[in-house]
Amino acid sequence: MALNIKTLGTRALTALVFVVVLLGCLLWNYYSFSIFFFVVAMMGLNEFYKLSEKLEAQPYKWIGFMSGALVYITFINISYIRAIHPNTNLWSFLLLLPFLIFTVALFNKRDKPIHNALFTIAGVLYTVLPFAMLHHLVFFTNHEHDFFQFDPDIILGVILLIWSNDTFAYLGGSLFGKHKMIERISPGKTWEGTIFGILMTVGSGYIVANYILDAGLTLWMILGFAVPILATIGDLVESMLKRQAGVKDTGNIMPGHGGILDRFDSLIFVSPFVIVIVKLMTLLNVSG
Fold first, then answer.
1. Which of these, 136, 181, 184, 261, is most buried using a 10 Å CB contact count?
2. pLDDT band at 286, cuts 50/70/90?
3. How many C-beta neighbours within 10 Å does residue 70 have?
4. What is the mean pLDDT of the chain?
5. Which residues contact 162 (CB under 8 A, 6 or more apart)?
6. Where are the domains of the chain?
């Protein structure tokens, strides 16, 4: 296959803009962080609902977007923004959302109301909740001054590990790949590439801990092993969704790279597990 210079240039330029915007919003301050991932979550939800229509569902978009926005806002640290305590707690409202969506389905005249309601809920859970939960990774209590401080280091490190896995899994698959992983879902993924990506990302975890973030080695060695496995599963889940919907990409927001879900499929799957790992290590008082 001849090398398409124009396509390669488009992909490279899109990737550069994506990296600059992502890292800029992540590292600048809490406002840019919250706004960026809110936009990403809502755009991802829109892509999910479009895929749902190809899967013969008719999600209730208006209440889906309202629910997604409420879920995201619930995770925002209001006390940090307003410099007050305690944080406004909206958790109780989230318990009502599935019931409200099923109530909408009850009175709506579309076919397959249960089917539509489940896809509406699934969109919020899959595309909004993981990004909303990232807020729990960027706050650390400053015990000396009794306030929360914004620190995106963990998310930055996790994103670097995801990129490491993507790069080395691709290289490993290109150089050594012979045995297909799940060919019916993703014909290009091989066991050799996946294992190579995991091994190299464990090494990347060591580099992140010692030379980039100056953070606890134990945590980042665990994440260096867990993140590539979870990221691979996340990529396969999204591929499964696209294959069943009969589409190549979830969108075209990023020329040459597809849609929001195509670019963030790994982080969507990784973020809840990273939060559990971090919280568990904190609970067990594991350091270094």
1. 261
2. low
3. 17
4. 84
5. 227, 228, 231, 266, 267, 270
6. 34-150, 152-288
Q: Is residue 164 within 8 Å of residue 156, measured between CB atoms?
A: no
* CA 153 centroid distance within chain: 16
Q: Which of 189, 59, 172 is nearest to 111 (CA)?
A: 59
Beta bridge partners of 184: none
Can you give the pLDDT at residue 84? 45
Residue 285 Ramachandran class (φ > 0 left, ψ -120 to 50 alpha, else beta): left
Distance separating alpha carbons of residues 236 and 230, to the nearest angstrom: 10
Rounded Cα distance between 245 and 46, Å, is 15
Mean pLDDT to the nearest integer, 258-281:
90
Indicate the DSSP class of residue 180: B
Give, for 54, the enclosing helix (H) or strand (E).
Answer: helix 30-54
pLDDT in tens, 37-48: 999 999 999 999
Report which residue type is found at 153: D
* Measured distance CA(146)–CA(64) in Å, rounded: 37
Nearest to 271 by CA among 234, 240, 238, 216: 234
CA angle (253, 150, 205) in 5-degree steps: 70
For 258, the 3-state DSSP assignment is: strand
Other Cβ atoms less than 10 A from the Cβ of 28: the count is 12
Residue with tokens 């809110």: 38
> 225-263, pLDDT tens digit by residue?
999 999 999 999 998 999 998 888 887 777 666 789 988
Residue 187: CB atoms within 10 Å? 12
Confirm if 159 and 267 have CB atoms less than 8 A apart: yes
Kindly report the CA angle at 228 between 223 and 234, in degrees rounded to 5?
115
- How confident is the model over 189-199, as pLDDT tens digits? 889 889 999 99
